[in-house]
Write a structure and sequence with these properties.
single chain; alpha/beta; Rossmann fold; 6-stranded parallel sheet; 4-stranded parallel sheet; 14 helices
Length: about 325
């Protein structure tokens, strides 16, 4: 969405996050001032499939003890120099914007007040709820959880990164033959080092990132291949059901096999939406980690590839952001 905004108008962009810069699209990172700073706690995960509730509670306690100071520091930084704050959706962004007298817009499919309340973390939930009430508007993405804390909202649809390359050229860059079936495994924390998770299937190859596995059916991530190009090249994607991968697979027309997670309240809503779309399948964590998902994969690969959905949130969101910035 920010790339779309920069294509329409000239503006100075600052990105405040502790996410590694190399995970940002290169074109966007090159045009933004990058501020490496945590904006919230989120949830602490023991791995891609499990939340560590106790560690999350401890991290939130530590964060809340210095929260007022962080709000003051961020408000001082943006006061008189920023015209708009866009948050996705750290409560700090909206408290700081309100204190600095800067308009703010939230972009989300879930909010932390709802997540923390479902996890029994009431103090953090109330703090987030108060911050969200100070936001100017919520741009609500599809599919969404309940987010009643926001006073004003616009439903803008599905957000996903459309591949810049066509499917054929993307597969050629990855090095997969036309007759082969390519399965993209999109995990980050340790899951991809389990060889037993990948069933040996003739004619099927796996594309991994950040894994130490050495097998003839495993393809290393090639240089100059974006994640969304890998998604469109794949015949199926296997991943946890986070919003990013839900949007990316939907707008590129790639089947998704999503692995159940524990401790993520938003999955109830994400999974309900995925079940209404063609070719998607749910895998239990046990069946995936032990490699007993061959039949599910085979059934998905036999179905016609679904039609890509429109990433309608991009144009709708750009219009709102551009209007908020004014002339």
């Amino acid at each position: 969405m920010l790339e779309g905004l920069l294509e329409q108008r000239k503006c100075d962009l600052e990105i405040v996050t502790d996410v590694p810069r190399d995970m940002c699209p290169p074109a966007l990172a090159a045009r933004a001032r990058w501020i490496d700073r945590a904006c919230d706690v989120g949830v602490v995960q023991s791995d891609d499939l499990n939340v560590d509730a106790e560690a999350t509670s401890r991290a939130l306690d530590a964060w809340e003890s210095g929260y007022a100071r962080r709000v003051d520091e961020e408000a001082d930084r943006i006061r008189g120099r920023s015209r708009l704050v866009l948050g996705d959706v750290p409560p700090l962004a909206f408290d700081a914007a309100a204190e600095a007298g800067v308009q703010s817009i939230a972009l989300a499919n879930f909010s932390w007040d709802w997540i923390y309340a479902r996890m029994g973390l009431e103090t953090a939930a109330r703090s987030a709820e108060k911050a969200y009430a100070r936001a100017g508007r919520l741009l609500e993405l599809t599919p969404a959880t309940p987010m009643p804390a926001f006073a004003s909202r616009s439903q803008i649809g599905l957000l996903g990164r459309k591949a810049r390359s066509d499917r054929g050229p993307a597969r050629q860059r990855i090095g997969v033959a036309d007759a082969e079936r390519l399965v993209l495994l999109a995990f980050r924390q340790g899951v991809l080092d389990r060889s037993e998770a990948l069933p040996l299937i003739p004619g099927v190859r796996y594309l991994l990132a950040g894994s130490s596995l050495s097998r003839s059916d495993v393809i290393r991530w090639p240089d100059q291949c974006s994640f969304e190009d890998a998604v469109v090249a794949a015949d199926a994607v296997v991943a946890k059901p986070g919003y990013g991968i839900v949007g990316d697979t939907a707008v590129n027309g790639t089947p998704l096999l999503y692995v159940e997670r524990k401790g993520f309240p938003e999955d109830e809503y994400l999974e309900a939406w995925l079940e209404r779309q063609p070719c998607n399948r749910k895998l239990t964590a046990t069946s995936f980690l032990t490699g007993r998902w061959r039949e599910d994969l085979g059934a998905s690969l036999e179905e016609p590839r679904p039609a890509p959905l429109d990433a309608d949130a991009v144009s709708a969101g750009v219009q709102v952001l551009s209007g908020a910035l004014g002339d």
